[in-house]
Amino acid sequence: MSNLAEISKFFETEYPLNKEGLEELLSFFKTKTFPKGSQLLKTAQEEKQLRFLNTGVIREYYATSEKETNINFYTSPQFITDLSSFMNNSETNKYQESLTEIEVLCIDKSVFRKLLHKYECGKSFIDLSFQKLLKHKELLEYNRVTKTADELYKELLIYKPNWLEKIPQYHIASYLNITPETLSRIRKRIS
Fold first, then answer.
1. Is residue 106 in a domain?
2. What is the pTM of this model?
3. Among 125, 130, 129, which residue's Cα sits nearest to residue 112?
4. Where in this chain does the record put each Cyclic nucleotide-binding domain (predicted)?
């Protein structure tokens, strides 16, 4: 059960569930390992699994024929599923790619939904997850519209220093919507 330690800890601190419900939920998760550069999610695809990042680094991004724009990175144990696609049976607009070798815990949507019906606390997990997701998305949108690249980089230094350690700088530049050269100048000014 060592590969379930992080997800158990996550549920105990973030979304307390009754002990029986948690044990049953965890028993259905399967461990998958992906090499660096693996596509976990592609646009126009529907999320069929609830996925939890156990170890490794993932980037989430939008892509057009002209460019890719990073919108999030996952560097610590947490759920990485596009919840909107997962819960609404709709296609995603996002891509996810592993930046390192990763270990992911997965449970099929049909199994998860059966557990939601069986345990009332499962609904609170989804509701709270959506609330957190919306809050994060609104903050991200607000910051990208109102703050300069310097200010956004300073926030990364304070709130996401592990991103700056684990993620290549050109991906950070894309996240900040600037060129790698501009990021280099910002880093020189701020340090």
1. yes
2. 0.87
3. 125
4. 17-116
